Amino acid sequence: QVQLVESGGGLVQAGGSLRLSCAPSGSIFSWKYMGWYRQAPGKQRELVASIARDGSTNYADSVKGRFTISRDNAKNTVYLQMNSLKPEDTANYYCNVYTWGGNDYWGQGTQVTVSS
């Protein structure tokens, strides 16, 4: 069973930056999208950003201009660069890979806490 391994979360002051990384423990063929979701206490999980196989990206309105999703094909890794962080960005962030076959892979989550 392929697992997604996330890293890069932590505690940062408002205005600071963090970079999240996510790599599968094995090969995931025919992936369609890679993305990051987040879930704050008492709230539903929401899409933060996604990148398609053709390189096109999609962002939540709340993070546009501050977050950047990218991937390194050689390392089979997807990144989320988060700049100008705000307290409302505090959440558990989850990596996701969705395949053409309809399979959904999720990471275990990494906590991001932004202090004011």
Helix segment tally: 0
- Structural class category: mainly beta
Order of helices and strands: EEEEEEEEEEE
- How many β-strand runs? 11
Distance between the termini: 40 Å
How would the global form be characterised? globular
* Alpha-carbon Rg, integer: 14 Å
Q: How would a textbook summarize the main sheet?
A: 7 strands, mixed
> Strand fraction band?
over 45%
- Low-pLDDT stretches: none
As a percent range, the share of helical residues equals: under 10%
Overall description:
The chain is mainly beta and 116 residues long. The protein contains no helices and eleven strands. The strands form two sheets. Strands 2, 4, 5, 6, 9, 10 and 11 form a seven-stranded mixed beta sheet that branches. The chain has a four-stranded antiparallel beta sheet with strand order 1-3-8-7, with no helix packed on it.
